[in-house]
Amino acid sequence: MNFITKKRNISNSINVFRFITQDFAKDTINPNEVEHHSNLKDIWWKSNGPLNALHSFNPLRISFIINGLLNMKKIETKNIGTRQSLKNIKILDVGCGGGVLTEALSRLDSNVTGIDPSKELISIAIDHSVILRNKNIKYLNESIEEHMKLNVEAYDAIVTSEVLEHISNKYSFLTSCVECLKPGGSLFITTPNRTFCSWLSVVKIGEQLNFIPKGTHQWEKFICPHELQSILEMNCQCDTIAINGLTYNPFTNRWCWTDSTDISYALHAVKGK
């Protein structure tokens, strides 16, 4: 269920968003966030454990990436549905954690680099990738700002999935991501919206009923689609191609596309040439 967002006057919303985030640290890395996620290292690869939603999210995330790159004519139609769906595509997975999405992307013949500020999670990712014996995957324990210094315009696509809601300075983070993109490259983001519905479903119900590890989310860090679109267009010279609404059923552990972005959404943007 794709829809292309229309231009709108959103200056008031952006000012509100800046007011909400103005007291956050200038650095994009929050030590408390890193520590919280590092403490999940022992359960990261348990597909039926507390992070099962992360694992079941892969099919939709991968289809979103493939369809986006196909629409931009970056991959060949004949390869879709094969193990070469992402052949020769160079991808950066920012905030890769233990590598759940990174590994899945590497299996489709892409060259993937996963970066994360957590030493523990990168260690878990490296250990797990040994099973694959895949030379197309690489992990680095560093922030996007550190990675950017030696990788300007290096990637065909950048993915940052379920990461932005944990970032304090979204402007700096997104700018650094886009700096690593080649002109015409694609940025793929999934993140919760900042609405009452997302607060109720993600923070209250999700964490209180243990569908999500407690303390994972801070609702005030969530970002609305039009706010994200504005940052990308005004600060990063990116055009928003599509925004898809997402919903998750914790009782069936299934993700679905929806017309509504009230809870969560996926965004595809393209860097100007």
In short:
Helix content is 35%, strand content 21%. With 273 residues, the chain is α/β, with parallel strands linked by helices.
**Sequence of strands across the biggest β-sheet:** 3-2-1-4-5-8-6-7
Q: In percent, how helical is the residue content?
A: 25-40%
Rg from Cα: 17 Å
- Outline: globular
CATH class: Alpha Beta
User: What is the correct CATH architecture?
Assistant: 3-Layer(aba) Sandwich
Total number of helical segments? 10
Terminal CA distance: 27 Å
The proportion of strand residues reads 15-25%
Number of E strands = 8
The CATH topology name reads Rossmann fold
Give, in order, the helices and strands.
HHHHEHEHEHEHEHHEEE
Mean pLDDT across all amino acids: 87
Protein name: Ubiquinone biosynthesis O-methyltransferase, mitochondrial
Subcellular location: Mitochondrion inner membrane
Domain Methyltransferase type: 92-189
Keywords: Magnesium, Membrane, Metal-binding, Methyltransferase, Mitochondrion, Mitochondrion inner membrane, S-adenosyl-L-methionine, Transferase, Ubiquinone, Ubiquinone biosynthesis
Q: Which structural traits does this protein have?
A:
Rossmann fold, 273 residues, disordered N terminus, 10 helices, single chain, alpha/beta
